[in-house]
Structures are given as C-alpha cells and as structure tokens.
Amino acid sequence: MSLHHRIKSLTTAVKGRPLRVGILSLYDVENNAVRILSATLRSDGHDVVEIYFKDWISNHLSPATDVELNNLSNLVDDRSLDLVCLSLRASAYYNSAKVITDHLKVTTSAAVLWGGMHPTLVPDECMDDADMVLEGEGELAFADLANRLQAGTPIDDTPNLRLNNEDGTVISNSLRPLVTELDTLAFRDYTSHDDKFFIWGDNVEVGDPMHGDPVFQMMGSRGCIYKCSYCYNSTYKATIYPKQKWFRVRSPQSMVDEIKAAQEHWDFKRIRFDD
C-alpha cells in the first residue's frame, strides 16, 4: 500500500469514532514526550496505548529481534490501532525506527507517524520512511491531528504536520507557536494500567515499566539557556524557533502538583530534577 493510500485508509476508518493510537518509545522507559502526549490525547477522549519498546543500558541500543518485532505488530493488531507514533528523541534512533516502521507496514494496517528531535531537524529524510511526520512541540499539534481524524475533517493543513500527497508531493505545514505557559499542559501519565506495555526479549509486560524504580525524574522547564554547538537546542533556537522564547519554566506549584499526582500511583523514594 502506498504512503498516500495508508493515510487515506486511516482517515476513512477513523471518521466518527475515537482514534485508536499507539505511542511508541524507543529504548527509553521514562520518555517524557510519550507520557505527556498520551495524557494530552486521553484528556480529549482518544484511545491511547503506550508502548515502551526495549530500554537502553549504558548507552547500548541492542537491535530489535524478530521476536520483539512480531510481539509489537501482534500488539498493534490485538489493540486494533489506527496510528502508531514513534518518538525519536535523537538521531541515534533512526535505524531502529526504520526497522520497526518497515516491519509494521508489512505486518499491520496501521499508519505510522514519526515525531521528536530527529524528524524535526531532518523531516524530508524521515518522509522517505514514515507516512507522516510531526515536527516541533507535539502536544497541541498531535491533539489537533487526532481531533481532526475523529471528526472526519481534512488533515492536510494541520500545523506541524508533513504528509504525502496523492500526486507524490509532500505537504509541509507551518509550525504552531511554542507553548509559553507550561502550566497549561497535562502532567505526564505515570498511572499503571492495561494500556501500557513494555516489550523486551520474549516478554510483553502490562503496566508502567517505571513503577518499582526508586527515582522520579522531574522536569520543571523546557529548552536551554546555553548555545552548545553539539546540542539540538542550539539548532532549534537558531533555525526552528528563531524568534520565540525557547527557555520556559513552570511554576513551583505546578511541579509540586505533578509530584503529588505521581505519588498516587508510584511509591518512589527520591526526586531528581533533570533540568
């Protein structure tokens, strides 16, 4: 099935019912992006499955095995997912994302969307693999896309979205402004339930893979005040969001409230601020 026809099938199948979406984390069971995207979509009434695919150990990313890939595609089919979103938080994950995407295209009918740092920095390259690419900050843009799909309205002009047109060209939309008030965003989802899965080796575990870890990693800000040339922050500030305030901070009360909310589900012993 061509890239465009996969998107067309997605829009036809979803119209009038909740979008069934899987958000997939590569080698990272913490993954702030997956957790906040999931919380945002759930607050809009969408059926969201969080899939944590393997984990990294001492910066080592072991290649996906056939068993792991088949467990993933079986999960996508079992949950009848319409769309699978891969979170690529660094370019080091590109090869793994490509292998997974190629496998999903052969074994499932789900459309595949890529988002994160790598697709934002080199979206044209990623369009060779993914059905769609979501650039920049994803919470409001992804919610907009999901709501349009459910309502049956056109998605071609969705901000932050790139997708393949019927004539083979690529539609590229402008980016939404950065979220200036971080307190308005949903807290990361740390509840443990039947919509969370951890795939590693022969096992598919149900529930939140972070539970049992003694440390809760807290983020009170976004962006960075420095301009290190080796870091994506410098490129984001210079080329992606050159005229917007890149470094933003949450209120102390918002951070305390998120910690309290996480404590209702997870008996962690320490809090580490990762800013």
Describe this structure in words.
By secondary structure, this protein is α/β, with parallel strands linked by helices. 34% of the residues lie in helices and 21% in strands. A nine-stranded mixed sheet has the order 7-6-5-4-3-1-2-8-9, sandwiched between helices. Strand 3 (83-88), helix 4 and strand 4 (111-116) form a beta-alpha-beta unit.
Topology:
Layout lengths: L2 H12 L5 E7 L5 H12 L3 E7 L12 H13 L4 E6 L5 H14 L3 E6 H5 L1 H4 L5 E3 L4 H13 L9 E4 L5 E3 L23 E5 L2 E4 L8 E4 L2 E2 L9 H9 L7 E2 L2 H12 L6 E4 L2
Parallel strand pairs: 1-2, 1-3, 2-8, 3-4, 4-5, 10-13
Antiparallel strand pairs: 5-6, 6-7, 8-9, 11-12
Helix pairs in contact: 2-7, 3-4
Oligomer: single chain
- Separation of the first and last Cα atoms: 43 Å
Largest sheet: 9 strands, mixed
Strand order of the largest sheet: 7-6-5-4-3-1-2-8-9
**Count of helical stretches:** 9
- Counting DSSP E segments of at least 2 residues, the number of strands comes to 13
Strand content: 15-25%
Structural class: alpha/beta
Radius of gyration: 18 Å
Query: Helix content range of the residues, please?
Result: 25-40%
Low-confidence spans:
none
Order of helices and strands: HEHEHEHEHHEHEEEEEEHEHE
Report mean pLDDT, rounded to a whole number: 92
